[in-house]
Structures are given as structure tokens and as C-alpha cells.
Amino acid sequence: MTAARAPRRRIDGVLLLDKPAGLSSNAALQRAKRLYAAEKAGHTGTLDPLASGLLPICFGEATKFAQSMLDARKAYVATVRFGAATTTGDAEGDVIATGAVAFGCSDIEAALARFVGTIAQVPPRHAALKYRGRAYYDYARAGVEIPRTAREVEIVALELVGWSPPDAIVRVACGKGMYVRVLAEDVAAALGTCAHLAALRRTAAGPFDIERSHALAELEAMDIAARDACLLAPDAPLADLPRLDVDADVARALRQGRTPRSTRAAGRFRAYSAGGFVGVVESDAQTLRAVRLARTDE
To answer: What's the pLDDT tens digit per position in 85-109?
Structure first.
């Protein structure tokens, strides 16, 4: 006889989860959702099963503001294994080519420097991007080649932090949509060889850092009160937006769909009133407009 499932509950906040390697992002999300018995939950940017590290999970009201995390800069520590290319660009694939590893630290550092900034990157064959309604990886698994158009991506920083041939440990800071496994292949090509991504760990996402995260085993060992204490406030993903304090009349107007006057410069803000977090608003230097508002119990 199976144990009765705990009833779902309304819970709002952000969990900084340290996802283990070998678990998909969705599987990690579902385990966290069960632990919290949460009615509503979503993660803020997929990590491949191979990868470990920071996976912010939003519960309840926090899901309204998850988009800011999807668009946020990320940081990773990657293990690039030179001398072998795989079908998937990572350690899960079969080796399809080999190459010499006849270079040192200074050569790798010079190659990495060429990729810092805004670059054109062709997405991998095994990607969740869609072509004619189907994911790239569906075509790849079926052995069907499809056109893959290069996209502009931003690489903020690349640093070699370890070299034990054939493995290089590289610290990466990047913008949305950058594939680290493609970067590994492209850096290898610049060095006249091939490579694949042997391991990947996400260490930061937007305003969040891996040091503040919690492992599933750690959470499972806690009682519900301790687990709840691990959650950040629903507005935590918006920490990079400037704060705007408004009075009760302005907050009420925004919630009623009106556009009160604004003296703030044009831009987006996280708004607060005496009643707490109001939501994300946008100013055109004359009026305020609600972009996404938090629920109120008033």
C-alpha cells in the first residue's frame, strides 16, 4: 500500500537548487515540487542531464517573474576534453573523430581570447530549439540534417583555470542562448584539433550564486519548516532591476489597469508600496505601466 501524497499547497518563493549530474532539469523540478508539496513550480533555464549546478526553481508567484532569469547572464565551470569529438558535443555521445593535443596553456589562453565578446555561434544538432515544430534533437536522433543558422551570442569572460592534458578547466560567463559544448568545439577547431564537453557546472545565474544553493539530499533531510526557510522571496529574480517605491494610490491604480503619472526616467523597475512588493512596472518618463503584478490578498 502506497503512502498518501501530501496535499498541494500555495507556496511562493525561489529555491536555489544544486542539481546533480545525471538528472534532467524537469526531473529535478518535479522532485523539488513534491518536496514542497507546491501547487505551481517552474525552473528558470534548462541544464542538460550531464551538467550539475545552479538551477533556480520558482514556486507560485515567483513563476510570474521567471522570465528575467531565462534572459539573465550565466556562469559555468567547464571541463573541455581535447582530442576527441562526439556525436552530441558532450560526454554522452559516441566518439566520431580524434585529433592531436600538441599545445599548452598559452595556446589555449590565446584561443579563448578570440571568443570573448559578441560572436556568431551555430547551435548544436542536439538542441531543444525548434525547426518546423520539432526539436533539433529529434531530427538528430533520426539522422536527418536540418539547416542550423548561426546566432549572435555574448561571451563576457573566458578564463583557463586548469590544464591537465587532454582536459582544460575553463570558467565561462555568458549571455542567453550560448552553448558551452559548441564553444568547446569551436575553441578546439581554433587550436587545430577537436574536443567535447566532458563536464559542466553552472555556478551563477543572474543575481544568484551556487554558494547559496541547496542539494536535493540536503532538502530531503529537512522538515517542512526548515525547507521553507530556504526559499527566497518571489521578487528575488528581479534584484538586478532598480527599485521604485510608490504610494498606495499609485499601487492601486496599477492594479486597476490605470497608468499613473511618473517622474522617473524611462525603464523597468521593481515596484514596492507600504503593502510590499507590487510587481514589475515600466516608465516612459511620463506614466507608469504595469508589466507583471504580484498577487495581492487585499
So the answer is: 999 999 999 999 999 999 999 999 9
CA distance 208 to 200: 17
CATH of domain 241-293: 2.30.130.10
Contact of 231 with 13, CB cutoff 8 Å: yes
What kind of fold does domain 13-72+207-236 have according to CATH? Pseudouridine synthase (3.30.2350)
Catalytic member of 12, 18, 48, 90: 48
Smallest CA-to-CA distance from 254 within 240, 269, 265 is with 269
Query: Counting beta carbons within 10 angstroms of the beta carbon of residue 76, is it exposed (0 to 12), middle (13 to 18) or buried (19 or more)?
Result: buried
Q: Structural domain boundaries of the chain?
A: 13-72+207-236, 77-199, 241-293
249 is catalytic: no
Q: Is 140 helix (H, G, I), strand (E, B) or coil?
A: helix
What's the fold here for domain 77-199? Pseudouridine synthase (3.30.2350)
Residues 234 and 111: their CA atoms lie apart, in Å, by 41
Pick from 57, 7, 14, 6: which is nearest to 230 by CA? 14
Same fold across 77-199 and 241-293: no
pLDDT digits (tens, 9 = 90+) for 203-221: 999 999 999 999 999 999 9
Query: Are the CB atoms for 129 and 136 separated by under 8 Å?
Result: yes
Q: How far is it, in rounded angstroms, from Cα 129 to Cα 136?
A: 6
Contact 90, 48 (CB under 8 A): yes
**What would the pLDDT profile of 142-189 be if each residue is shown by its tens digit?**
888 888 889 999 999 999 999 999 999 999 999 999 999 999 999 999
Is the pLDDT at 1 greater than 50? The verdict is no
Which three three-digit cell numbers place residue 37?
508539496
Using CA atoms, how far residue 50 sits from 29, 53, 77, 88, 213, in Å, is 16, 10, 13, 11, 19
